[in-house]
Amino acid sequence: MKDGGISTTKSDSYIFAIENNSIPICFDPLAGEDGRKLLFIPKARRRGPLSIDEINECRYDPKWRIKRCFFYSIFWFGWIFSLLIAILITFSHPKCEFTTREWWKDSMIYEIWTLSFSDSNSDKIGDFIGIIQKLDYLRRLGVGAIFLRPIMRVEKSGLGVIEYNKLASKIGNFEQFNELIIKARIRVLIDFPLVLTSISNPWFDKSALASVHPEDAHFADFFIWRRGIPNSEFISEYCGSTLKYFHVKDRPDLPVLHWTNKNVSDTIKAALSFWINKGIDGFHFSSIEYLHRSEDGKDPNWEKIAKILRSLRIFLDDERGGGSAREKIFLFASHAHLSEASKRLLIEHASLNLIVNTELQSLASGNLICSSKNKGNNIGECANEIIADLLIFHKNDEERSATGLVEKDEDRVKVWPVWNFGNAFTPRLASRVGSRIIAEILIQLILILPGTPLLYYGEEIGQKDLSRGKFPQRGPLGWNIDEIEEENPHFSSTNNTNITTTASPSLNKPKASQISQNIFRNFLRLSNLRKYSNSLRYGNVYITKPMEHDAFLLCRYIENNRENDRKFYGEITIFAANFGSITRILPLSQLFPLFQQNNSKNQKWHGRVIANSINALEDYPINSFLDLTRKKLIRLGPMQSIVIQAFNGYF
């Protein structure tokens, strides 16, 4: 094509070049013979555990062998090195001595007069089933042990045993007693009169007539017999004869066992073993002062008494098979007017667990035991003086007393404090001090103090003595708290509860049920606090001197010095009480821990009211907060008390 067009004619040379010199086509190496490309599918990797073949391949591969040996060596050298470091740290650093805290140091003991506590069958006598029905109540109180008296068959006063292996009349049978032991889930302690029997005890007549009845020769020296000596308050004649015997002071109906006679000690040990096999956890040894007396019977010989008690401890430990403190039989005793030296003797040498402080049993309105200067109500001053003296006696190396009269004594025997206001043989606290409110304040006080409270049933509601009766302190406990002070408290399961052996409570004021409820609630608050508060469980104690005879402060605190800065950190429990009839102002600066903080401008103290007396509810409501840094004075009206939990901080 010519004339400006494109020529489509190929020249001969071009055609020749194309036909005779063709360029070979290069196919893809993955293509087939026909030139078509082949599809390449990579081999998929198998997931999961190695197969046996793969494992064997790695096992015999020299490369993997070297790696395995290397990591094994690293592991074992590291493990051995860590073990050596742990051993080095263990033996090169100071160690804390492992100790088990005895159960009674964190518990309350609750004394029950079994014949009056709770009647299940409406026979007007308390019984085991009645106690079983009230176990939830006892657990709610927070008690760690119940102390039952009487259990065995005794005479009416409860001091002299008639039969050691028989239960008291009408309180139940051994099957019911066993049910109580199983269901209690708290420790069960019983009163065991070691040395006093009743003249109704068959041993007494057998012993007196052993010389004429050879078959009773075994009982000849069961009691202390004498001839040719004058009668006295401790000695009486047997049935008008010349034969005379020793007995409790002014109680000829309670002859004293002759404990130096092996037949007696073996018989009593057999009785102890009998009750251990019944499942009890401990004994209260009553009237131990009569275990060994002077020739005239007037004075106890405490050293020989301690030896007798020590022999019983060894026997009981063998019966229980030794073991830890939690497994051993718990032993305690009480005796009025026991000296400090005798208390130490009975703990250290006789190996009793506790000795009850009976000094507070003398606390009564208007008595002159503590002070003769104050002519009015001296309950506050008297309680302060007794408690301060006992705290000095019981002090440990960290405790301080407001009096500051006693220096540290490393050799002093540590006797654990047991606080008690009364029992089945003393008038009730509320009757002695003349006021349920004062009694409530005093019960709050022993719940704050270091040691073990031993409560007599009914004290948690401020119960008073009955208006009449030979033993008014053993009145029935009214289980309907709304009617606790009514004429017929619900002691039995029947509505007809006109107890013939005891009289009805003497108080019948309006709103009495509200008083009982508030006293009971405050008791529960402090009882629960004792379980969880470190200051109440482990803290030191500080008590001030009486202010105007009838008010004082007390606190529990844990001293945690940081680089010996002499400051207190954490929790302090403060108890403030006014026992008088006039409003008092109590300065918190008198308390040792707070006094130490006066020069610290950054440290602040705040408090929460956790308990109070029933007449302080409006002035200091429960759970109300106080600024103790600004408010350094506590104003208390007549017969008021409060318990404050104080905490510090920095602002």
TrEMBL record:
Q: Which residues form the Glycosyl hydrolase family 13 catalytic domain?
A: 111-530
Residue ranges annotated as transmembrane are: 69-91
Source taxon at top rank: Eukaryota
List the SUPFAM superfamilies. (Trans)glycosidases
Q: Which UniProt keywords are given for this protein, alphabetically ordered?
A: Membrane, Transmembrane, Transmembrane helix
Note the Pfam families from the entry: Alpha-amylase, SLC3A2_N
Biological processes, Gene Ontology terms: carbohydrate metabolic process
InterPro entries reported in the protein's UniProt record? GH, GH13_cat_dom, SLC3A2_N
Q: What is this protein called?
A: Glycosyl hydrolase family 13 catalytic domain-containing protein
